[in-house]
Design a protein that fits this description.
By secondary structure, the chain is an alpha/beta fold.
């Protein structure tokens, strides 16, 4: 009568568009590879690769390289970051490593130590030719 969606329809919708989450209080050691969005609020020791967006939350900590279409950093990263489109360094983030980004946005409270390379050509080169040099 009210055209309510079936329970299975609601479950499929919530699963199909979801992001992967490493929650606060969780530690993960190893590389992560994903085709969907990733959010890290815990600690990851290893490289992160995504064809979508990577978000490092305020309590998130990554020791390794991050590669994604977009990246939004609010926590701590020790490693190189490669964002094909937009890389945002926000809040009180602390990044120690080299940046490769199509576009870069840095808030005044963010801390960054490393080299910055910008432009689509640089990002493509970094992904294919410079990984050994960037470390």
């Amino acid at each position: 009568m009210f055209n309510n969606p079936k329970k299975t329809d609601m479950q499929e919708k919530s699963i199909s568009g979801g992001a992967t989450l490493v929650s606060a209080g969780t530690s993960f050691k190893g590389d992560i590879s994903s085709t969907s969005d990733l959010r890290i609020d815990g600690k990851v020791v290893g490289n992160i690769q995504s064809t979508a967006r990577v978000v490092i939350g305020a309590n998130g900590e990554v020791e390794g390289d991050i590669t994604g279409n977009q990246a939004d950093i609010v926590g701590k990263v020790s490693g190189n970051i490669r964002a094909k489109e937009l890389l945002q360094l926000r809040g009180d983030c602390v990044v120690t490593g080299n940046l490769y980004a199509g576009k870069l946005q840095v808030e005044p409270t963010a801390t960054f130590n490393g080299h910055c390379h910008m432009g689509n050509n640089v990002v493509e080169m970094a992904n294919k030719e410079l990984p050994a040099l960037a470390k």
